[in-house]
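Why do we care about 3D structure at all? Because function follows from shape, and shape follows, mostly, from sequence. That is the central idea of this module. The next example makes it concrete: a single protein chain, its amino acid sequence, and then its structure expressed as tokens.
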Amino acid sequence: MSSTPLLDFVRLPADLRELKKDRLQQFADELRAETIRAVAHTGGHLGAGLGVVELTTALHYVFNTPEDILIWDVGHQSYPHKILTGRRDRIRTLRQAGGLSGFTRRSESIYDPFGAAHSSTSISAALGYAAARDRQGKNHHVIAVIGDGAMSAGMAYEAMNNAGAMKSRLIVILNDNDMSIAPPVGAISNYLSRLVSSKPYRGLRGLAKKIAQRFPRPMYQMAERAEEYARGMVTGGTLFEELGFYYIGPVDGHNLDALVPILENVRDSRDEGPVLIHVRTEKGRGFEPAKSAPDKCHAVNKFDVITGTQVKSTAKTPTFTRVYADALIREAARDEKIIAVTAAMPSGTGLDVFAQKFPERCYDVGIAEQHAVTFAAGAACDGLKPFVTIYSTFLQRAYDQVVHDVAIQNLPVRFMMDRAGLVGADGATHAGAFDIAYLGCLPNFTLMAAADEAELSNMVHTAALHNAGPIALRYPRGEGTGAAIPEMPTALEIGKGRLLREGTKIALLSYGARLAECLAAADQLAAMGLPTTVADARFAKPLDEDLLLSLAREHEVLLTIEEGSVGGFSALCLHRLAALGELDKGLKIRTLTLPDYFQDHAAPEKQYAEAGLDAAAIARTAVDLIFGDANRFAGRSAG
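And the structure:
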């Protein structure tokens, strides 16, 4: 007999809506159990999804999805949604090559109307959908579900301000699982929320407003504000009312008997204007190991369903992230002007370790990358040395501030970009593909990339000493190469690379963490009788012009290699070689970059092989250039 009879019956939300309300909690329990089993098999985001199982159930039960538009912010909490929307048979392919995405994705399902993975986009997207609905004379509902953490980003408030002004019919669910922005949820709170969401109350409220409108304008405005503030004092919703939303809450997000009627009331009301329903949930709900974990099992490896013990490979070397954290701690111990800034990612960037050592010098500004950059710019103006530590893919969100507030003013802000390059299971949304290109075009910037742990340590030290303007350092996700970390770091000469191996036929110029693959490729080429030079550029800006020219002039073939998009390090090299006339002399040159498309999630080694950035592909490209056809050369060597 199946342990999930209701879940077995419900293949799509339409099936869910055939259940009686008194069966919904059993269904939610089965959905939670299936989510736990799926993530135990694949790894991925767990805590957030467990916290919204009842909310997911209620939303699909009450609203007519996919005709009604349901948008999940970020999307890392959408695993129960995926199971419920026809993807249960593929849920154990989550984040695997060729499998389901770990986030919402338009190409994956009609129940994913808007793709996401970065935070705080849902209200803007939902408002766009609402405007399109109104413009086209349609009448469906549009719902955005956004977490309390995502509400720390300015974009969410920009969208809410616009929604309040537009007065479009829009439903925003604030999933509050952490911030103390409301009184505790209980029976009275649930009752009041149900009351203020009901048709009679809202009808009476509307009638009272119409009567009050006959008063002189000052008296009407006073009455309107009195009613809003009275409800705000009870529910905590004054801020949202001021933004033009009708506020309902807080509601117990795990009590379906409270949640479903409130959603039905909102669904059945056709009042104009946006509504915000404040739902309180518990991250990691229903799984004791998640509830007791400091991060509520936000992101996990494969794990044992009973004990919650995660399967972790034994690290042979420290991660680049940990090497960075240790290096920054060392620099901060020597220089009290150093501060660290992150945007809601202290553990992901290693700054949680820094904060343990220097709590008063570590600033987590929330999901607010724009603010983080300008905050750091202000600190730099008054003599501090800010290290803005943000994933490469997230720094994109603050590009205007990087240009306007830092580069133009030539301020010594240090940008430390974790997750540079491909990131495996998190896929295209989290890959650090573009920072070389989007920073390399900016005047005043110095750009560095760490090839190994020793270089990372030296580059953090170099950045700490650099006060001539903004400087950026990129380094990859995952374990290091095993390079010995120096006890005393060396300050690198700005704009100078290094030679690691010298040959006469082929030159490989690496920028960043593909250096180990370049050395392996050089070994393969040497075995073919092709002596190969390997150089580490270290800097993309300023370029080591002397090194670049010597490689171009003294070798038949030159390859540039980077873990970045087109338009990055290779473009800077080509631009300089063209300006010096070196491309007019018969040099055979190829630029190896990430492909000009967004790569799907897969194991990193598979992604790099697909991109042509592993040792075999690097060697094959060099052979093709020399002999014109790799197969012909392979046949000649065999003969």
